[in-house]
Design goal:
By secondary structure, the chain is of the alpha+beta class. Helices cover 17% and strands 36% of the residues. It has a single domain, classed as Glutamine Phosphoribosylpyrophosphate, subunit 1, domain 1 (4-Layer Sandwich). β12 (221-223) and β13 (226-229) form a beta hairpin.
C-alpha cells in the first residue's frame, strides 16, 4: 500500500529527511514504486513536488532533503498504483484551489466503485487523472465547498470537522480510507485500516501520531531518518507506520484528528455512514 506522512509545527521548519524515510518504503523490498509527491505550505499556497517514479531513485528527493522549503505544514505520499496509470496526473498529493486557498489531499487505500456511488458526486470539482483517490478528493471538496463560499473565512473548525467526519464515514464503507487533507489553516488526518506488515492482513491502525513539545530552541529533532530543523516548540508527525521506536501512538479505527500549529486541536471518533 501507499505511504503517507504529514507534519504540523508551531513555526516554519525545514523537513529534511522525512522524504528519505518514506522513500525507504518504496525501495529495497518496498513495493511503493509508482510515484511520490510532497506539498509544503507557504501561507495559503503550496510548493508542490511530484514525480511518477520511485522516490528512492529520485535526484529531486535528494535535493529536497537538503534544500526543502521551510514550512509549518507539509503532506507527502509514496504511491503504489492500484488504480490508474503510472503518470503525473495520478501522483499524489493532489491540490485544488478553493476560496482563494490551496487545498491538499493524499489517500492510502482502495475505494472500489467510488465513481458509481451516489454519495460521492463530482461536478464543480473534477478529477484530472483516473484514480479513486483523486475522485475522493473532488467529492470531499463538493461537500465542503458550501462552507468556504460563506464569509468570514475560514469556516468554523466545528463545521469543517463535521463535514469531513461524515465524508470519512461514508468512505470507510468502500475500503481502506486513510487520508490527509489540509485547507491552508488546518490539517485533518483520518486513520482507518491498512495492510499490516506482520500479518499481511488489512487491519487498523492505518495511521500513527508522534507528538513532540518543548524542544530547546537550538536543538533539531532527529528520529530514525526524520529530521526537522530549526527547532520548534510544538510538532506533530503523522505516518502510515512508525518511523522510529517509542512514542508513536496508533489512530483508533475511524478516528479523525484536526491539527494546527503543531498541536492537536480537535478530534472526532468514528461515526456511522449515511444511507447509500
Amino acid at each position: 500500500m501507499c505511504e503517507l506522512l504529514a507534519m504540523s509545527s508551531s513555526s516554519p521548519a525545514q523537513l529534511t529527511f522525512s522524504l528519505a524515510a518514506l522513500a525507504s518504503h518504496s525501495g529495497n523490498g518496498g513495493n511503493s514504486r509508482d510515484g511520490w509527491g510532497a506539498a509544503f505550505y507557504q501561507d495559503q499556497d503550496v510548493a508542490l513536488f511530484r514525480e511518477p517514479s520511485a522516490a528512492h531513485d529520485s535526484a529531486l528527493v535528494r535535493f529536497l532533503e537538503t534544500n526543502g522549503p521551510r514550512t509549518a505544514l507539509a503532506i507527502s505520499h509514496i504511491r503504489h498504483a492500484t488504480r490508474g496509470a503510472v503518470a503525473l496526473e495520478n501522483t499524489q498529493p493532489f491540490v485544488r484551489v478553493l476560496a482563494g486557498r490551496a487545498h491538499v489531499f493524499a489517500h492510502n487505500g482502495n475505494l472500489p466503485l467510488i465513481e458509481q456511488d451516489d454519495r460521492f458526486p463530482v461536478s464543480r470539482h473534477r478529477p484530472i487523472g483516473t484514480t479513486d483517490s483523486e475522485h475522493a478528493f473532488c467529492a470531499l471538496l463538493e461537500r465542503i465547498s458550501a462552507l468556504w463560499d460563506t464569509t468570514p473565512l475560514p469556516p468554523r473548525l466545528e463545521d469543517r470537522l463535521s463535514v469531513i467526519a461524515a465524508f470519512a464515514a461514508d468512505l470507510r464503507t468502500l475500503g481502506p480510507a486513510n487520508f490527509l487533507y489540509a485547507d491552508g489553516e488546518t490539517l485533518f488526518a483520518h486513520g482507518h485500516r491498512r495492510i499490516q506488515p506482520a500479518t499481511g492482513l488489512v487491519r487498523s491502525p492505518g495511521l500513527w501520531l508522534l507528538s513532540r513539545r518543548c524542544v530547546p530552541a537550538d536543538e533539531p529533532l532527529h528520529a530514525s531518518g526524520v529530521s526537522v530543523a530549526p527547532a520548534f516548540q510544538d510538532l506533530q508527525l503523522i505516518a502510515s507506520v512508525p518511523l522510529s521506536p517509542g512514542a508513536w501512538q496508533p489512530f483508533a479505527e475511524g478516528e479523525l484528528l484536526a491539527l494546527a500549529m503543531g498541536q492537536v486541536i480537535a478530534t472526532s471518533a468514528a461515526t456511522p455512514p449515511s444511507a447509500s
